[in-house]
Write a structure and sequence with these properties.
The chain is of the alpha/beta class and 333 residues long. The protein has helices spanning 11-23, 54-63, 78-83, 85-105, 139-158, 189-198, 225-240, 258-269, 293-298, 307-332, and strands at residues 2-6, 26-31, 45-48, 68-71, 110-116, 161-167, 169-171, 204-207, 219-224, 246-250, 255-257, 275-278, 287-288. The longest helix has 26 residues, at 307-332.
């Protein structure tokens, strides 16, 4: 089968490309490399381009008949979305409309979307299931929720079947160590903490200690990127076997506060960290933890990796990155 992965050179996308290649699928990757890395791709056909380019989309869909499309190309930083909502509505909404229209024109009928728990906003339950009220607190969450509603409309009007996987906090790296998390700048908590351990990051801040949680720091549900890839694979197979358009929460159903993650990183690395107090970020809810029972029931998906494994895999990657940096620094000297 032929698979198109939009944003396939990015963090989650590159792991998904590797998973698809390992499974034997033929993969085409479309990425504008604004945040992706061409060297993260172990194979497949690469197309350098953007969803804003309608002519390019038509060329890609004319050249290949895709059995399924994976969409990982939405911008996803809460703070950035508050500072520049126009960018988020343009990239996330307008570009996704371009993609869906191209799929409709070329009769591509299956899409898996990288959605987000950001659509829920402040949790009104200990565990968030798919029936939880949808009240996004920032433009990123609102843009993703609008896309989910568009998907339902495109199914009704054009017959495009889709699955939106609502990721909670994706973390970790490929267990082999050949793929990792390489954001510039890095904004995710676990890699930032590990970069502080190796000295690649000079300062770590906690953004607020006044959340409605036991230790005052936000509680999040950390899910391994390889568990995310497995959910995507199962969602695709469900669509290809006649599954209906729908949405699923993908999380570990285990909450950990920022301070609990800090303690886990210190325990696994054997290093103490100096943590500075920062200002609470706008749009950050206090607790976001998944009820993923529907994905377990409908997709036969299971979370396999714990928070400790997430940190251990990421620590192995970070040590490799630091060794490489030390090597090239010594070579220049």
């Amino acid at each position: 089968m032929n698979i198109l992965v939009i944003g396939g050179a990015g963090y989650i996308g590159s792991h998904m490309v590797q998973r698809l290649l390992d499974t034997g699928y033929r993969v085409v990757i479309l990425d504008n490399l604004s945040s992706g890395h061409i060297d993260a791709l172990a194979g497949g056909e690469f197309v350098h381009g953007d969803l804003a380019n309608r002519a390019l989309l038509d060329a890609v869909f004319s050249t290949h008949r895709f059995d399924c499309v994976f969409h990982f190309a939405c911008h996803s930083l809460v703070g950035d979305s508050i500072r520049d909502p126009a960018l988020y509505y343009s990239n996330n909404l307008s570009s996704t409309i371009n993609l869906l229209q191209a799929m409709s024109r070329h009769k591509a009928r299956h899409l898996v979307l990288a959605s987000s728990a950001a659509i829920f906003g402040e949790s009104c339950a200990m565990f968030i299931d798919e029936r939880h009220p949808i009240q996004p607190t920032n433009p990123y969450g609102r843009s993703i929720w609008m896309i989910e509603q568009m998907l339902a409309d495109f199914d009704g009007a054009y017959g495009i079947k889709s699955t939106a996987l609502r990721y909670f906090n994706v973390a970790g790296v490929h267990p082999s160590g050949k793929l990792g998390e390489r954001h510039t700048p890095e904004t995710h908590l676990i890699p930032r903490l590990l970069q502080a351990v190796t000295g690649r990051l000079s300062r770590i801040e906690i953004y607020g200690r006044d959340y409605g949680t036991p230790d005052g720091t936000p509680v999040r549900d950390y899910i391994h990127v390889m568990d995310i890839c497995e959910a995507n694979l199962l969602a695709m197979r469900r669509l290809l076997s006649g599954g209906k358009t729908g949405a699923y929460n993908i999380g570990s159903s285990q909450g950990a506060s920022v301070l609990e993650v800090v303690a886990a990183v210190e325990r696994i690395t054997g290093k103490r960290l100096t943590i500075h107090q920062g200002v609470r970020r706008l749009g950050d809810p206090s607790r976001v933890v998944a009820n993923a029972e529907l994905a377990r029931t409908d997709l036969a998906w299971r979370c396999r990796y714990s928070l400790n494994t997430i940190i251990e895999d990421a620590w192995r990657w970070e040590k490799g990155e630091q060794e490489m940096l030390d090597y090239y620094t010594a070579a220049r000297v």
